[in-house]
Amino acid sequence: MRVEFYGLTFDLPAGWVDIAGDLPEGSPPTLAKETDGCGAIQFSIAKYRSGEKPNVDFNVLRTFMIQFCRNNSMDVEHITNIESDGIISVGVLSETGDQLTSAWYLSNGNDVVFMTYVGMANDTDCLKELGVAKAIVSSISF
Q1: Cβ pair 140, 10 in contact under 8 A
Q2: Mapping DSSP to helix (H, G, I), strand (E, B) and coil, where does residue 142 land?
Q3: Over 90: is that where the pLDDT of 75 sits?
Q4: Is the pTM of this model over 0.90?
Q5: Are the C-beta atoms of residues 126 and 120 closer than 8 Å to each other?
Q6: Distance between CA atoms of 61 and 105, rounded to whole angstroms?
Q7: Is 116 exposed, middle or buried (0-12, 13-18, 19+ CB in 10 A)?
Q8: Residue 68 has pLDDT above 90, yes or no
Q9: Distance CA 8, CA 24 (A)
Q10: Cα torsion at 57, 12, 19, 117 (round to 10°)?
Q11: Which of 5, 44, 50, 60 could form a disulfide with 114 if both were Cys (CB 3.0 to 4.6 A apart)?
């Protein structure tokens, strides 16, 4: 189902809900499976409002991702670039211990979204949820 979520539009499978209201105040917009979930998807959204246009490109997103990886002890060698329908994104996937983390920076040149999925590594259900996160990334529009 196509949904609008904090200024973004994307495809979201049935059974996924906004759980930000259940988290501590100030938590970012967060989605999780309503039942039997093992991870969560979180969003940080920066929308261009006025002033000089930022003209965000792959180099900017890659710089952001390298900094995120360094701050979280993640390997920067596996950063991927994707462009589709005017949206550019860089992503990374990391498994450390029992945690699976995937992160993406997306932009339409003006707006930027940082999206993460965190779940349990080596868990079939979490790998399915990671697939949902990847599908959301590929369907986002601003």
Answers
A1: yes
A2: coil
A3: no
A4: yes
A5: yes
A6: 6
A7: buried
A8: yes
A9: 22
A10: -50
A11: 44
